[in-house]
Specification:
The protein is α/β, with parallel strands linked by helices. The protein is built from twelve helices and 16 strands. The strands form two sheets. The protein has an eleven-stranded mixed β-sheet, with helices on both faces. A five-stranded parallel β-sheet has the order 14-13-15-12-16, with helices on both faces. Helix 1 packs across helix 5. It binds threonylcarbamoyladenylate (TXA) and magnesium ion. The site of magnesium ion has 3 residues, from loops.
Length: 350
């Protein structure tokens, strides 16, 4: 199906906004609609409709074995998707919902037939964004909603990013401006005996520890791939080579790589250092880089930048979720000056 995609602005009082009613109507008819959440834009469809879920996969060109997060208006809707009440669930719900925390629970039979891609668990979240909230209430259903980008592209944090990726594939985008968090929710698996973080986000292991009384482990490597299908795919890739440069790289290494890449094309740098004047520079530090990252990568792509260098962050001090996304976006990582010198000497450049 090919659509003329409309992008409707939602005013300051979403509950009274005709665009929300129109979006809810489309959802009730089994169509899909993009909407803002506090993390990134989602592409929503009725989570209990096989057809609507199929439309989401088709529009995003998403691998068929990567299950979707179901968004619900409040915790009372959990029972539509799961009969279980795992240990620790109540505490986490009280502390973090609505908000950027997704909980993986044992799925009931109907959820297993629609949104879980054959898994026996379902991922649920209550978003904390007035437009997402108004839409969920008006539609009166749980919305399966992955990030509203083409599979493998950076997640959208502005309505125009959704339009760029999904124009003609979907009927409607609700435009709520910029998503304040900018990276996707923390995913915590509660379906086993002990909670495990499947995807890091702005709610950190330390935040979870404050509520749980112990720090949950992070699923890594093969375990992460087994437990959360999203970890199997390369994500968030911009189209131009993107190099991650860790803080240990000294000024000499930094200047050398800028000079080298500048001989080959237009270079942009995201981070706190002062680059050469011919390099496009977006100043950023650890505290605002998460919100900016996807947006800046998309801007530079559209401006025809050839090479991107992004300053990495240390894993400590809440840098884990940002580093996770940077690693996924990066073509290659430079840990120190030697890495950079070896790269320059090898002469390999896409
Ligand atoms: O912030 C977010 O979570 C955004 C907004 C739109 O809410 N959504 C989002 O969805 O990032 P998506 O589809 O891009 O990522 C969902 C992640 C994937 O890595 C997927 O594998 C994992 O959640 N997931 C979904 N259901 C799961 C399940 N039952 N068990 C384990 N992982 C699951
Ligand atoms: Mg995604």
């Amino acid at each position: 199906m090919s659509w003329i995609t409309r992008c409707l602005r939602v005013g300051s009082d979403p509950d009274q906004c005709p665009s929300i009613k129109e979006a809810a109507e489309l959802l009730k008819q089994g169509e899909v609609v993009a909407f803002p959440t506090e993390t990134v834009y989602g592409l929503g469809g009725n989570a209990l409709s096989k057809d609507a879920v199929a439309k989401i996969f088709e529009a995003k060109q998403r691998p068929a074995d990567n299950p979707l997060i179901v968004h619900i208006a409040d915790a009372s809707m959990v029972s539509k998707f799961s009969d279980a009440k795992p240990k620790h669930m109540e505490e986490l719900v009280q502390a973090f919902w609505p908000g950027p925390l997704t909980l993986v629970l044992p799925a009931n039979e109907i959820a297993q037939k629609t949104v879980t891609c054959g898994l026996n668990t379902v991922a649920l979240r209550v978003p904390n964004h007035p437009i997402a909230q108004a839409l969920l209430r008006e539609a009166g259903m749980g919305l399966a909603a992955p990030s509203a980008n083409l599979s493998g592209r950076p997640s959208p944090t502005l309505a125009k990013h959704v339009l760029h990726d999904l124009k003609r594939f979907i009927p409607l985008i609700l435009n709520g401006g910029r998503c304040p968090v900018g990276i996707e929710s923390t995913v915590v698996d509660l379906s086993q005996d002990t909670p495990v973080i499947l995807r890091p986000g702005t709610i950190t292991a330390e935040d979870l520890e404050e509520v749980l009384g112990f720090r949950p482990e992070m699923a890594q490597g093969e375990e992460a791939k087994r437990r959360t299908p999203g970890a199997r795919y390369r994500h968030y890739a911009p189209t131009m080579p993107t190099y991650l440069m860790m803080p240990m790289v000294d000024d000499y290494g930094f200047k050398s790589i800028l000079q080298y890449l500048s001989l080959k094309g237009r270079v942009a740098y995201l981070g706190p250092r002062r680059p050469l004047s011919r390099v496009v520079h977006e100043p950023a530090n650890r505290s605002n880089m998460g919100e900016m990252l996807y947006r800046i990568l998309r801007t530079w792509e559209s401006e025809g930048i050839h090479y991107v260098i992004v300053e990495g962050v240390s894993e400590k001090f809440g840098g884990i979720s940002l580093l996770d996304r940077l690693n996924k976006a990066a073509t290659r990582t430079f840990h120190n000056r030697t890495d950079i010198m070896n790269f320059i000497e090898s002469g390999e450049l896409p």
